[in-house]
Structure formats: C-alpha cells, structure tokens
C-alpha cells in the first residue's frame, strides 16, 4: 500500500509553486511554470505515493509564500526532510546560512568539515526537495556567480536579490 502525498499548486511571485505534504510535514517545495510539469516532478520524486490535490494545506502554503516574500523570517514550517545522513548534514548547514549571505560549494564543504567533498556537497544541494525552506539558492560557484539551481537562475537571482535588499535596508 502506498502513502498519500497531499499537494497544492498555486501562483506566487516566482511563477507557480508546488507544496506537498506527507504525514510528517512538508516533503516537497518546487517552482515551475506549468501545472503539468510540477505534477510530473512530484510523481518523479515520490513514484510509489498517491498524490492527492488538497486545498486543506493552504495555511502551509500561506506560510511558505510569506517566507518567499520575507526571506529574513525564520523558517518554522514542519518539514519532512528525507535524505542520506550526508545530505541532511549539508541541508542543516544550508539552513544556518543567514539570508543575504552566500557560500561557494567549497566554502560549504569546509563549513561542514568535509573540505574534499565539494562534489558531494553540490550533489546534496541538487537533491534538495525543499526549495526556499532549505535555502540551496544561497550557494554559488567559486567565481562568485550564480550556477546550478534546479528552478532556474532567474528565480535564484530573485531570491538572493530579495534577501540582500532586506540586509541592505535593515
């Protein structure tokens, strides 16, 4: 018997957002430009789950939309973080990066005490299922430029712009 994953897709200032919830909390946050693509993405992440479109999770969606618009607020959403021990370690480190701050993949690897694991760190960032709640958009390449964001470099740039705008205005 497969578990159900409740989800909702709604418009936001970054396009469309998908929020999916398991019995333990939010298990997927994704951005996209079309409902079909986001639904296919969810099915790819949880192939044995039965997705159920559920507007009852709208309060969680509202909290997430607030986090997108006010990225300096702490993320207090209930998260169902699924990954390997190493991925979870990287994701916890990502949550410790203050809004408006960026790390390179190599800086993040050093931060977690694994300076030779730069590729593994990049892989953990790519495997992140919880966009914004686990802020992998705060990781940039060694040259200081944007790279590697599953949801598009435009969205990454906009998230970082919002964060730095708050830092610069206090």
Give a short synopsis of this structure.
The chain is α/β, with parallel strands linked by helices.
Give an account of the 3D structure.
With 170 residues, the protein is an alpha/beta fold. It has two domains: 4-69, Double Stranded RNA Binding Domain (2-Layer Sandwich); 85-169, Orthogonal Bundle (Arc Repressor Mutant, subunit A). Helix content is 41%, strand content 18%. The chain is built from six helices and six strands, in the order E-E-E-H-E-H-H-E-H-H-E-H. The strands form two sheets. It has a four-stranded mixed sheet, with helices on both faces. It has a two-stranded parallel ribbon with strand order 5-6. 32% of the residues are buried.
Write the layout of secondary structure elements.
Layout: E1 4-12, E2 15-21, E3 26-32, H1 35-45, E4 50-53, H2 58-69, H3 85-96, E5 103-104, H4 105-111, H5 118-127, E6 139-140, H6 153-169
Parallel strand pairs: 1-4, 5-6
Antiparallel strand pairs: 1-2, 2-3
Helix pairs in contact: 3-5, 4-5
Mean pLDDT: 90
What is the CA-CA span between the terminal residues? 50 Å
Number of domains: 2
**Approximate helicity band:** 40-55%
Q: Low-confidence segments, ≥5 residues, pLDDT <50? A: none
N-to-C SSE series? EEEHEHHEHHEH
Mind summarizing the main beta sheet? Answer: 4 strands, mixed
Overall outline: globular
Radius of gyration: 16 Å
Write the CATH homologous superfamily of the largest domain.
Winged helix-like DNA-binding domain superfamily/Winged helix DNA-binding domain
Determine the number of helices (DSSP H or I, runs of at least 4 residues): 6
Strand content: 15-25%
CATH class of the largest domain: Mainly Alpha
| Strand order in the sheet with the most strands | 3-2-1-4
Q: Per CATH, which architecture of the largest domain?
A: Orthogonal Bundle
């Amino acid at each position: 018997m497969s578990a159900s994953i409740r989800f909702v897709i709604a418009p936001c200032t970054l396009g469309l957002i998908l929020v999916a919830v398991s019995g333990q909390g939010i298990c997927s946050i994704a951005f996209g430009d079309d409902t079909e693509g986001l639904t296919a993405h969810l099915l790819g992440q949880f192939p044995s789950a039965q997705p159920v479109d559920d507007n009852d999770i709208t309060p969680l969606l509202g909290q997430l939309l607030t986090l997108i618009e006010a990225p300096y607020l702490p993320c207090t959403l209930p998260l169902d973080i699924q990954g390997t021990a190493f991925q979870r370690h990287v994701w916890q480190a990502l949550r410790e990066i203050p809004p408006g701050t960026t790390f390179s993949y190599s800086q993040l690897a050093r931060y977690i005490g694994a300076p030779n694991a730069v590729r593994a760190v990049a892989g953990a960032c790519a495997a992140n299922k919880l966009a914004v709640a686990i802020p992998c958009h705060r990781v940039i390449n060694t040259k200081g430029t944007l790279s590697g964001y599953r949801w598009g470099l435009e969205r990454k740039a906009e998230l970082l712009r919002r964060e730095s705008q708050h830092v610069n205005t206090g």
